[in-house]
Amino acid sequence: MLEAFIKRKAVYQAELDIRLSYILCRSWGAKTSVSLT
Fold this sequence. Notes:
Layout lengths: L1 H35 L1
């Protein structure tokens, strides 16, 4: 029971990290493209 919970939490955390890095990349890319033009 506990192992399944930990596994689910790890997967959720990984998805959260991916989403966060994606948003950061998007915002950073937008900033750089604005500064380039």
